[in-house]
Amino acid sequence: MRLDKFICKSTQLTRVEAVARIQGGDVIVNGDVVVVERTQVHEDNHIIFNGQRLQARAFRYLLVHKPVDTICSNIDEAYPSLFSGLGIANTSELHVAGRLDADTTGLVLVTDDGRWSFDIIRPSLACEKVYRVNLSQDINDDATARLKSGVQLQGEARLTLPAKLEIVGPKEVLLTIIEGKYHQVKRMFAAVGNRVIGLHRERVGAVTLDIEEGQWRYLTADEVNAFISKANSTDE
Ligand code: URA
Q: Chunked in runs of 10, what are the mean pLDDT values of the chain (236 residues)?
């Protein structure tokens, strides 16, 4: 990672402060003063600041049960940010692994580990996302078959990848997809002439939502590693 990012991650300094201290010659990397903030460093490097060796904080991995009318952005906009309700330090470093719309509720994975979240998001790793979908009209056999095999979304070059669909009731289904295109679920049902009136994410990969709306918890090591092992085995 970049040296300025490392300094931010291992101290209370802002990015601007970290850059100023690096350019001022206050940071030593593996015995040499480094004044270029873009310099790439690794956690194993010996990085001294203010006479002390810095250790990057460990990555954080959270499961958040997103309430309705919150947004998956780091700053409050038309709705409050999901992050402002967490009550933990340095939320500006965090990001979501797969956004939900403001009116969608349910499971959001939050982290500051960009590599980990990338593996969850990219379709080639086939990480399943399960949504409970409430519809304005009854679901019919034709729509079910089309959703399962792949539908054409407006503005997309290719059909959606095959999905799983379980009928819960005439207007309620569980949809499992491995992609995460913009407004994907709403657009999939629009493509078959229906409309989503309620959307809730229940599961991502091995992680199932098990906390109340508005609450969060850290992921267990097994949950974190479940995504990592999947990535490694698929890359082989
Ligand atoms: N698909 C949508 O349309 N909205 C979401 O929030 C998530 C998936």
A: 87 86 96 96 90 87 97 90 90 92 98 87 86 98 98 94 97 96 97 98 96 97 81 40
Residue 109, domain CATH? 3.30.70.580
132 alpha carbon to ligand 1 midpoint, in Å? 11
pTM of the model: 0.82
| Spatial CB neighbours of 62, under 8 Å, sequence gap ≥ 6 | 86, 94, 109, 110, 111, 216, 217, 218, 219
For residue 160 and ligand 1, the question of a CB distance below 6 A is answered with no
Residues 20 and 73 in one domain: no
Q: Which of 102, 107, 5, 17 is nearest to 62 (CA)?
A: 107
Task: Give the whole-angstrom CA distance, residue 44 versus residue 95.
Answer: 24
Range of the domain at 67: 61-123+206-235
- In angstroms, rounded to a whole number, what is the distance separating the alpha carbons of residues 169 and 144? 13
